[in-house]
Amino acid sequence: MAFDQDAVRRTAHLARLALPQEEVPAVASQLEKIMSLVEELSAIPTEGVLPMAHPLDLEQPLRPDQVSNQDERQRLMANAPAAEHGLFLVPKVIE
Amino acid sequence: MDWEVVIGLEVHAQLNTATKIFCGCPTTFGAEPNSHTCPVCLAMPGALPVLNGAAVDKAIALSLAIGAELNRHSVFARKNYFYPDLPKGYQISQYELPVVGKGQLTVQMADGSEKIIGVTRAHLEEDAGKSLHEAFVGQTGIDLNRAGTPLLEIVSEPDMRSSAEAVAYLKKLHALVRYLEICDGNMQEGSFRCDANVSLRRPGAPFGTRAEIKNLNSFRFLEKAIEYEILRQKDILESGGSIVQETRLYDANRDETRSMRSKEEANDYRYFPDPDLLPLVLDEARIEKVRQSLPELPDAKRERFMQAYQLSAYDAAVLTAGRDLADYYESVADGVEGKLVANWVMGDLLGALNKAGIEIQDCPVSAEKLRLLVQRIEDKTISGKIAKEIFEEIFHQGGEIDAIIDSRGLRQITDASAIAAMVDEIIAANPQQVAGFRAGKDKLLGFFVGQVMKASQGKANPDQVNTLLLERLQKPE
């Protein structure tokens, strides 16, 4: 499986990682190795085996639809880098 | 050769649970910003989601109502993208194994024909928060009250071939979620939103490249956006160009769609099963419990209205299009003639509501009052004409029907001698018309009825007027 430099740059961008250009070749070869390791798994016969969504053989428990959380805005927003009028503030986003 | 439009709709219905889908925060609209948040919906490290059972039950209800496959085993997945109103950096959704599989909706078109529209799937997911771009200079305010509100995304097959079919499907689905009481259907507040995938092709050819139109928050905008998109794509294709697969935004002010962003990169959501959530397994007891609690659905109600109230298919369809209207009609029709009530509800009432821009649930005339008004026509206290005047008054100013009838002397005149006196007067005053009628101009009866009604200020009982007039006019002099 080819994990070339373009793929590294694209993946880094999608993950919003600031990856310096000089590190791209090294990361590409490291990822290439990881991918080929994972690739070995495809040698295992999986025909007729259902995809596993979770390693635990358990079912999702359900919660009753009752309000259990109080307004704790003050405390929850205490570590926000910027907030005003109860809103989190982030750099301007324009669609 | 002409073009055929191919339309598929993705509808996001906010489920009207009391709490969010993965935490116990309230979902009520209009609270102080961020006052309905907790470590789970704010994506604090280590916080874990726990699925809301009511959201699951509402998905089951929709599935049963559209005869869809209900997946006993479904899986939550992470849809990864970055936007400030999505604090985790991913949306919890369902991808390969949604809770609801293939189903269908039958829609009624204006010409009376029916069409079956396939539903591909419906899956549970969480809503994002809200970004406020206007309030701050150079910054965006984020309110995460809506983050984590349960959504059911209902995806149709590309089965619709006109904007009218798309609107009919959306209306049917809208009525259905309101009947099921799984979503409040408020399109202005965004509780029921729609994206449309639109493409053109030559009839019989493979599907063309589609554009996805976002931000359609009314039936009218859906129709107009599709109509615009058909013209736009047709222009491009006929001038030899090709359609770019992209997301477009409908701008209602300019009545046009415009490109939002290339979908190519944004589409790379890198879905994978969410390790924080176990597979959702539905047991038969839970499904059966939801089935037992299902209300009467629109199609069944329409049939019953036709039987129980002797209504035409058309009348029954109009009256059952929404649950609130159907309930209102049934309250009015309790003990009075169904067809007469249907005429009142569909004519005067819907007309007045439409004119005033009011929804049926906010109707100023209660069902009890309208029933009393119809009863006063039935028991001949007032004429239909007077009833219309009283209706106008109570719709706009309120008031009690019997009090209005008494204080203004609107009671119908049923005293035969009083009516006879008026009839004689009119006959005496119009010798020419009398001669005409006796010479065979039957249509002149209408003239006489009108004159007597006018003389009585609309209060004479029309049946008695008719009978007495005929008696007098047919009697030789």
Automatic annotation (TrEMBL), chain A:
Keyword entries, A-Z: ATP-binding, Ligase, Nucleotide-binding, Protein biosynthesis
The protein's enzyme class: ligase
InterPro entries (UniProt xref): Asp/Glu-ADT_sf_sub_c, GatC
Reactions accelerated catalytically: L-aspartyl-tRNA(Asn) + L-glutamine + ATP + H2O = L-asparaginyl-tRNA(Asn) + L-glutamate + ADP + phosphate + 2 H(+); L-glutamyl-tRNA(Gln) + L-glutamine + ATP + H2O = L-glutaminyl-tRNA(Gln) + L-glutamate + ADP + phosphate + H(+)
Presence of keyword Lipoprotein: no
Stretches of the chain forming a coiled coil according to its record: none
EC number: 6.3.5.-
Keyword Protein biosynthesis belongs to the record: yes
Similarity remark: Belongs to the GatC family.
Binding partners and assembly: Heterotrimer of A, B and C subunits.
Function field: Allows the formation of correctly charged Asn-tRNA(Asn) or Gln-tRNA(Gln) through the transamidation of misacylated Asp-tRNA(Asn) or Glu-tRNA(Gln) in organisms which lack either or both of asparaginyl-tRNA or glutaminyl-tRNA synthetases. The reaction takes place in the presence of glutamine and ATP through an activated phospho-Asp-tRNA(Asn) or phospho-Glu-tRNA(Gln).
Protein name: Aspartyl/glutamyl-tRNA(Asn/Gln) amidotransferase subunit C
Species this chain originates from: Acidithiobacillus sulfurivorans
TrEMBL record, chain B:
Lineage: Bacteria, Pseudomonadati, Pseudomonadota, Acidithiobacillia, Acidithiobacillales
Homology family: Belongs to the GatB/GatE family. GatB subfamily.
Keyword set, alphabetical order: ATP-binding, Ligase, Nucleotide-binding, Protein biosynthesis
Protein encoded by which gene: gatB
Asn/Gln amidotransferase domain: residues covered: 327-473
Function: Allows the formation of correctly charged Asn-tRNA(Asn) or Gln-tRNA(Gln) through the transamidation of misacylated Asp-tRNA(Asn) or Glu-tRNA(Gln) in organisms which lack either or both of asparaginyl-tRNA or glutaminyl-tRNA synthetases. The reaction takes place in the presence of glutamine and ATP through an activated phospho-Asp-tRNA(Asn) or phospho-Glu-tRNA(Gln).
EC number: 6.3.5.-
Annotated protein name in UniProt: Aspartyl/glutamyl-tRNA(Asn/Gln) amidotransferase subunit B
Nucleotide-binding as UniProt keyword: yes
Enzyme kind, highest EC tier: ligase
Domain of life: Bacteria
Gene3D superfamilies given in the database record: 1.10.10.410, GatB domain, N-terminal subdomain
InterPro entries xrefs: Asn/Gln-tRNA_amidoTrfase_suB/E, Asn/Gln-tRNA_Trfase_suB/E_cat, Asn/Gln_amidotransferase, Asn/Gln_tRNA_amidoTrase-B-like, GatB, GatB_C_1, GatB_Yqey_C_2, Gln-tRNA_amidoTrfase_suB_CS
Subunit structure: Heterotrimer of A, B and C subunits.
HAMAP family: GatB
Reaction(s) catalysed (UniProt annotation): L-glutamyl-tRNA(Gln) + L-glutamine + ATP + H2O = L-glutaminyl-tRNA(Gln) + L-glutamate + ADP + phosphate + H(+); L-aspartyl-tRNA(Asn) + L-glutamine + ATP + H2O = L-asparaginyl-tRNA(Asn) + L-glutamate + ADP + phosphate + 2 H(+)
